Amino acid sequence: MSAVIKEAEFYVRPMQEEDLQNVLAIETRAYDFPWTKTIFQDCLRVGYCCWVLERDNQLIAYGVMSVAVGESHILNLCVHPDFQSIGIGRTLLMHLLEVAHDHNANMTFLEVRPSNFAAIKLYLDTGFDEIGTRRNYYPAKIGREDALIFARTVITGEL
Ligand SMILES: CC(C)(COP(=O)(O)OP(=O)(O)OC[C@H]1O[C@@H](n2cnc3c(N)ncnc32)[C@H](O)[C@@H]1OP(=O)(O)O)[C@@H](O)C(=O)NCCC(=O)NCCS
Asked: Which pLDDT score is estimated for 9?
């Protein structure tokens, strides 16, 4: 079970409505086109897997994933800019894969901007493969940007 992970420094727990102020503060710093509060509220309301990661009681990362009929879809994975590149994104991603496994998902999918080199490297490093493209998926400063679709199997022992 992956109800709650407590590692040496990181505490991973389900997101709550009360977290949204801190989540949105990170979201607006981390993305040029951030999700709104309503989107996060909808994700919580419909029962998506929404998790936060804390260090020293400070919320510094979060992830949102839907799971249905054997497939999971990572919809958001975000680390506070001041805490990036120290292993937190990888830790939370692996946690989401464990949650997907707990929900009997066989495959996990996600979309990423082709310009998001750090995220692409993280996904390739953690066993995702690029499986396709969604044209004009994301808003961009000029026009729209495609999304790369990544997928990986969720198999016990390979997390
Ligand atoms: C993408 C993101 C989640 C990665 O989280 P992170 O905590 O910074 O990443 P980690 O420290 O766990 O690094 C894991 C791997 O990601 C890659 N990575 C992370 N930062 C990187 C960077 N600046 N440049 C290149 N690769 C990077 C590396 O492969 C790294 O493994 P390594 O340390 O063994 O080289 C984080 O940068 C982020 O929140 N970005 C803004 C929001 C976002 O773009 N989310 C993804 C949407 S699809």
From this structure: 82
pLDDT at 23: 98
Take residue 98 and report the two structure tokens written for it: 């464990």
Q: How far is the CA of 156 from the centre of ligand 1 (A)?
A: 24
- Average of per-residue pLDDT across 99-112: 96
Q: Which residues line ligand 1 (CB under 6 A)?
A: 30-31, 77-79, 84-90, 112, 116-119, 121-122, 125
Q: Give which of 119, 110, 122, 107 is closest to 152, Cα–Cα.
A: 107
The catalytically annotated residue of 54, 111, 130, 145 is 111
Q: How many CB atoms lie within 10 A of CB 44?
A: 16
Enumerate domains of the chain plus CATH numbers: 5-153 (3.40.630.30)
Predicted structure pTM score: 0.94
Instruction: Give, in degrees to the nearest 5, the angle at Cα 18 between 15 and 22.
Output: 80
